[in-house]
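Consortium newsletter contribution from the modelling node. Members have asked for a concrete example of what our holo predictions look like. Here is one, prepared for the KG4 complex that several groups have been discussing at recent meetings.
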Amino acid sequence: MKILAIETSCDETAASIVKSSDNKIAILSNVIASQIDIHQKFGGVYPEIASRAHTEQIIAVITASLRQTADSLQQNSKKPLAVSREPLANIDLIAVTSGPGLIGSLLVGVNAAKTLAFADNKPIIGINHWLGHIYSCFSDNENLPQFPLLALIVSGGHTGLVLMKSHTEIETIGQTLDDAAGEAFDKVAKLLDLGYPGGPAISKIAIDGNAKRFDFPRSMLNRENFDFSFSGLKTAVLYESKKHKLDDKTKSDFAASFQQCVIDILIGKTLKAAEKYQPKSILLCGGVSANKELREQMKIAIDNFNAVNLSAIHYHLPPLSLTGDNAAMIGIAAAYQIANGIRPTTFDQIDVNSNLKLK
Ligand code: KG4
Ligand code: ZN
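And here is the predicted structure:
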């Protein structure tokens, strides 16, 4: 089965071709047109401009994803390509992010997907963006997560913990009550004048910083639930930053102390959930999972947890190319959903839902 996947929930216009056969996934193309340059001057994503940029990019991105497939196939095959004239003819299913996300952005991808499904009479499936991030950890056929799994999704728009007992038994056990973790990185970067997106900028200067200099509140860590809150942390950084002259050393200390606080909260909650649900795998995914310190400290924490609890939880990360928003993860999620009995629909049954929840 060959899937054309489309993702436009925030500020990346993305399309990908994913092939699945005998339960093996192959990403044939993964095209992403980023809008970072456009939103940089606003210090964050500007929704109306995002949807306009998606409209301008979507056809080119889909076309490129179909072409890139053709190119990669051409290298691997001696036969002339049939897809070059009618690339869509070889597509068996269209998958598209139907929510959650920015409504204007989602609409561009969903309408493009519906139009192609209608015009070519293809089946279509709507994929939850969170589920997409989770399946970014399923790109390595030789090292697949095992159920029950616990997934920590940390991105610019979302932060949550999801428990999956199988590909179709999915429960969100906690989420942020206010800001997402990535959003906190972006806001703190803004107040330290580091530009957008904030995550990479903070992690870069944090390397030279003293993570113990500022002791920010590890909010929600002592609560008996799996929800998160990051807006108090952002405010604490704001107030503390006003007491100091923000030279390079002080900025690095702020970045390192803030980053460590976020990491402690994320790891603390994840391990608390691991104690309760005893998963076989822990997955770390979403844009913030590109953070090197978080990736490494989570590994150490899981190793320690396993040693103390005599457990053998496996740790799974997406490759760096799939941490941020992309369409390959949407295609992989679709492949697994279809393989596990979820039926695709026709174009007229797909709708956007900017608040779509993962059950
Ligand atoms: O998953 P994503 O591309 O978009 C959403 O679904 O929201 O995540 C984008 C977020 C941004 O907030 C960005 O600052 C953050 O991921 N991010 C990072 C790093 N790289 C990207 N945060 C911390 N450290 C990083 N290295
Ligand atoms: Zn995302």
